[in-house]
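sanity check this fold:
=====
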Amino acid sequence: MIVLLYFAIFLIGSLIGGQLNRGIYRLAWNPRPIGPWSPPHPDAPPGRPLDRVPVLGWFALRRESRLHGAGFWIRPMLLELAAGAGFAGLYWWEVRQAGLYPPTVPVPDAWTLHSQYLVHVLLISLMTVATFIDFDEKTIPDAITLPGTLLLLTLAACFPVMALPIVGVSPAGVQQVGPLLLSSPNPWPGRLDGPAGLVIGIACLTGWSLAVWPKTVTMRRGFRRSVQYLVVSMFRYPFWRIIVLVTAVCSLLIAAVWSVGGSHWQSLLSALVGMAFAGGLIWAVRIIGSSALGKEAMGFGDVTLMAMIGAYLGWQPSLMVFFMAPFVAVVICLAQWILTQRRDIAFGPYLCAAALILIVFWSNIWHQRTKPIFQLGWLVPQVLFFCLILMGGLLSLWRITESALFRQRT
C-alpha cells in the first residue's frame, strides 16, 4: 500500500508538472506554442493522444524539434519527472517523517501534516512557473504572483495550522508546538488583537495594492509635475477599478476575520505583515540599488514574487531567504554558465530556491541557528534598516570607483 501511495503521488505530481509546463509557456510575456496543452504551431504535425501522457509524451513531441529547436523537449520532460519525484519525496519527508519538527516533540496529527504539505506543493508550483519564466525572459508575470498572494492570504486565514511550525516552552516548562507568528519566538502581544492590529493588517494590504497598481514615476520635470504624471498614469487604464474593488473587498474580509479573532486572525495578520515586509524589503533594495548604481538593480517582478513568498513564510523566514539567496545564486549561476555560457542573472529563481531550501530544512535552520536572533524582536528590522543604508553607500562608492577606473582606461 505504501508503494502504491507513492506511485499515486508521483503520478499526480507529474500531471501537475504538465500544467506547470503549460503555465511556463502560456503565461510568459511572449507565449510559445510548446507542449500538448498549448495551441499548436501552424506548421506542427497533427497531435496524438500520447502527447499528453506525463513525461513520456515529450518523447513523442520530439517530432517538433525543427520548429522549437533541438532538445527543446528535454527541460519540460525533466520538469514533469522532477515534479512527480519531488512531490513524492516531499510527502515522505513532511508527512511520513514529520521532518519539519524536531525529533524531541510528539508527531502532530495527520490533518496538520497534510495541510502543511499541500500548501507547500502549491507554493512550490507557483515558484516553479515564475522561476522558469524568469530564466527564459527575465520577467515574472503578475498572473502568477498576484493571484498567488491573495490565495495564500486566504489559506492563512482559513487554515492557521498550515504555517511553518515552531517549538516553544510553556510557563510550566513543557515543550509545545505552534505556528510561526508575527511575534515569534516571543509571545503574541495582546494589542495586535485590538484595533491597532486591524489597522496594521489593512495598511499592509493597501500598501501591496498601491505597489502593484500600474503607474509611471519620474522626477525629470520637478516634484509637482511628477505628482501629476503619477496620478494621471494610475487612472489611465481601466485596470485601476479592479485594484480598488479587490482592495475594498479584501479589507472587509480582513475586518471579518479580525472580528472572529483567535488563531485565524493571528495567522492572517502574520501573513499580511510577512507579505508587506518581504515585498518591501526587495522594493527597498531595488530603489536603493538603482539610485546608487544609476541603473535598474532589480525588476519589480522580484518584488511581487517575494511578497507572495512572504505571505506564506512570514517576515522572519523571508529575511532568511533574502540572505540565503546570494549563496544559492553562486551555485546556480556557476551551473548555468557551465551548461549554457550565459552570465546574465535573474534574481527571482534564487529567491525561490532559497525559499524551498528553507522549507525543507526548516526545523534545523530555525531551532538550531536563527531562533536566538529573532528573540531580539523589533531590533532586527532596525538593524536591517541600517544595513540597507550602508548598502546604498557602498554601491554608490562602487559606482564612483568603477567610473573612475573606466575613464582612466579610456
Remarks:
- Residues 159 and 285 are 32 Å apart (CA to CA).
- Residues 114-409 form one domain.
- Residues 262-293 form the longest helix (32 residues).
